[in-house]
Amino acid sequence: MAAPTDPAAGPAPDPADAAALAGRLEPLHSMIYFVPELGEELAELGITRRRDQYFAQRAAAMGAVGPGVVAATFFNYNPALVARSVPLVWSLAAPPDVVNARLRAADGALRRLLGDQVSSRAVDEAAQLARRACDGATGEDRPLYAAHADLPWPDEPHLALWHAVTLLREHRGDAHLHALVSAGLSGIEALVMHTATGRGFTVAFAQQSRGWSPGQWGDAVAGLVERGLLDGEGDTQRRGAAAPEAGHGALTEAGVALRAEVEDHTTRMSLAPWRHLGAERTARLREVSAPLTKAVLPAFAAADGVFAPRPARS
Q1: pLDDT > 80? residue 308
Q2: Could you give the angle at the alpha carbon of 35 between the alpha carbons of 33 and 40, nearest 5°?
Q3: pLDDT digit string (tens) for 198-248?
Q4: What are the structural domains, with CATH classification, of the chain?
């Protein structure tokens, strides 16, 4: 069933504007993966290893699911790595307790990062607009989004904003997996192509955090080279991309085109919330949330070695 359309929404936003706003809102959610408050809360429940904490906090909304479900919905993690954490984490803490611990961590982190802004009109308005956008989303074939959408809405505006951005993020994330599968990419292949842009994770972090061995990574690179999606040489000058890490190849023109197709597919499948919100209110959410996003960026300072350096601007 299609999501209801808000008759007061007005014209739909441009898809590119909607996709850009989704990216700009992302830090308001993803700071949770880097802030110390999350680790402290989960350690109180007995979940002390960082990898266990990640799988537990993001999967808990689905209940005590097994490793197969987590590997399928998280997509680019080695299933063998997932199986070393799941279902072990559920023997340490029940999923509802993990969900509550995550919310407490978000509360503490946002209060610390936003400071006086945490109780501002900007937070209240952004929360209302983001929640209205979520009213336009549906859960068909979107398991992570649907699981989080079943959780109760927090009362406090800063937590309602965090929850809304989480829903919008998982809604787009589930769509992204559809796009990757439609493009014939496995989880590790998608990860290799992500690092080959020179604008995402470093190869070292991608391999270590997602549990892929150098041999498995090399096999994926070879397969992508065979498909004409990587050149295997690192020649990026003709495409204007950032240089890849040595030995892992660069995207060919076909690879660049495939990634663009995947992003377009993802955006097309993720427009319902923004159509529901409408162009005018989407623009207002972009405006009012900008200083809030900026305020949480220090949470990512501890992520040294995670992301490839941005290429210098001319």
Answers
A1: no
A2: 100
A3: 888 899 999 999 999 999 999 999 999 999 999 976 433 333 344 444 446
A4: 15-115+123-170+274-299 (no CATH), 182-264 (1.10.10.10)
Q: Six-digit token pair at 11?
A: 């014209």
Six-digit token string for 281: 């209110």
Q: What is the rounded distance in angstroms from the CA atom of residue 145 to the CA atom of residue 174? A: 7
Q: What is the pLDDT of residue 274?
A: 98
Q: What is the pLDDT of residue 306?
A: 75
Instruction: Provide DSSP, the chain.
Output: -PPPPPTTS-SPPPHHHHHHHHHHHHHHHHGGGT-HHHHHHHHHTT--SHHHHHHHHHHGGG-S--HHHHHHHH-SS-HHHHHTTTTHHHHHS-HHHHHHHHHHHHHHHHHHHHGGGGGSHHHHHHHHHHHHHHTT---TT-HHHHHHHTSPPPSSHHHHHHHHHHHHHHHHHHHHHHHHHHTT--HHHHHHHHHHTTSSB-HHHHHHHHT--HHHHHHHHHHHHHTTSB-SS---GGGTPPPPPTTS--B-HHHHHHHHHHHHHHHHTT-HHHHHH-HHHHHHHHHHHHHHHHHHGGGGGG-TTTBPPPPPP-
Cβ atoms of 50 and 35 closer than 8 Å: no
**What is the rounded distance in angstroms from the CA atom of residue 111 to the CA atom of residue 115?**
6
CA distances from 52 to 40, 67, 103, 204, 209 (A): 13, 12, 17, 20, 12
Q: Which residue has the tokens 């990898």?
A: 51
Q: Which two tokens stand for residue 46?
A: 């007995």
Q: Give the pTM.
A: 0.90
